[in-house]
């Protein structure tokens, strides 16, 4: 099987690097699957999971959106934050989810606070799902 090099990079440094047979994730325009030989492109991502398949092994990385760039020999995902499933602190994500839900339920919210809380909730739920490989 052909493989392609993939790196997930954040402002804090690289989070994941490997050669994989297939990358699946959610672009803002919908589900995206990248195989070796894919045409070069750049796509903005949703808060979501990146699935990295190699043989019978599949790994998961949680990303908080960002950009995916496909070049002939390399796929790069640049995100503000990203964690492999093993690196996710599940308790922290559960607490973040609870805080975000509380903020969404509080009545006197400005729109800005509401949107911030919605994004925080999405990040937390995504981390919980990736940590549980429930995706
Ligand atoms: P929290 O409220 O728990 O900080 P957050 O969604 O506001 O969550 P981010 O701003 O997305 O956090 O991330 C800040 C940094 O903390 C990033 O480096 C991110 O990888 C890390 N991080 C956030 N939540 C977790 C988690 N549950 N497990 C491991 N690392 C995390």
Automatic annotation (TrEMBL):
The keyword Cell membrane applies. GO terms for molecular function: ATP binding; proton-transporting ATP synthase activity, rotational mechanism. It is a peripheral membrane protein. The keyword Endoplasmic reticulum does not apply. It comes from the Bacteria. Residues 90-117 form a coiled coil. Residues 4-82 form the ATP synthase F1 complex delta/epsilon subunit N-terminal domain. Signal peptide: none annotated. Pfam families: ATP-synt_DE (PF00401), ATP-synt_DE_N (PF02823). Produces ATP from ADP in the presence of a proton gradient across the membrane. This is ATP synthase epsilon chain. It comes from Niallia endozanthoxylica.
């Amino acid at each position: 099987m052909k493989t392609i090099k993939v790196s997930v990079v954040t402002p804090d440094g690289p989070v994941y690097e490997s050669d994989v047979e297939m990358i699946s994730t959610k672009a803002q325009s919908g589900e995206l699957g990248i195989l070796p030989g894919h045409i070069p492109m750049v796509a903005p991502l949703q808060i979501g999971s990146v699935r990295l398949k190699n043989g019978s092994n599949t790994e998961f990385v949680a990303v908080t959106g960002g950009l995916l760039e496909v070049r002939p020999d390399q796929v790069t995902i640049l995100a503000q934050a990203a964690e492999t499933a093993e690196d996710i602190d599940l308790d922290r994500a559960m607490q973040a989810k609870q805080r975000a839900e509380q903020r969404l339920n509080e009545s006197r919210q400005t729109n800005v606070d509401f949107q911030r809380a919605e994004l925080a909730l999405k990040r937390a739920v995504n981390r919980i799902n990736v940590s549980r490989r429930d995706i």
